[in-house]
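So, read this over?
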Amino acid sequence: MSLLRSSLDSRGVATLTLARAERRNALDQAMVLELIAALECAARDSQTRILTLSGDGPAFCAGGDIEWMKRVAADTPRANEEDALLLARAMRALDTLPKPTIARVHGAAYGGGVGLVACCDIAVASDTASFCLSEARIGLTPSVIGPYVQRAIGARQARRYFLTAETISATQARALGLVHEIAPAAELDARLARIVDALLAGAPGAQAEAKDSIALFAERPIDEALMCETAQRIAARRASAEGQEGVAAFLEKRAPYWRRDRDDVS
């Protein structure tokens, strides 16, 4: 039985659902492998515009499956490391997916679940959601997910929560920058739908390049070389088919081709 459900609607909105509710969607090797495969498929699929990530049952994701980690820790050092590397690859695949990604968080997101949230471009949580970097309490560290979580909340906050493993409320998660919006559980899907609508108004190629640019800006000083590269990028984008279509559509007061199937466009 699949541990991950996937669907794609007529607008190009893909939904990946962690489907291991009886284990609070805890991550084991089988689920991680399915997640990698699904993300790679979404990256290649020209019909996929947006990807949302959610969880079945009462929790978003309880992190790593403790029983699985106990078994793999007793295996050879190489097998143990290769298993950890799979999770690292899943996080990177989600982080670098060339499509907008949204985490829909309800219930608890612990350990690796926090990593999944941090790897998504946008995170929306119910006001009863909770988050915890719980690894230190069981003698582990948030190593694989650490770079993504630290990028989301900053080094100073990471120094606290990596060490204390305190539970973080939805309100605190928003203040930390881990999630962008919180809503009552009954309104969570409506809030998500508004964000999806906003994303569908953008040009897919421009959004992919915008994501790539964010990584570029984070890693480079603002010097002459970066100025030249950014100028080259915008010049190329203005000359691209999407750029020309978008400008022409604006001037002609019509919808560009990537919005023509939207009901709210006149």
Notes: The mean pLDDT is 95. The domain at 203-259 is CATH 1.10.12 (Lyase 2-enoyl-coa Hydratase; Chain  A, domain 2). The first strand starts at residue 4 and ends at 8. Strands lie at 4-8, 13-18, 50-55, 101-105, 108-110, 122-126, 130-132, 167-169, 181-183.
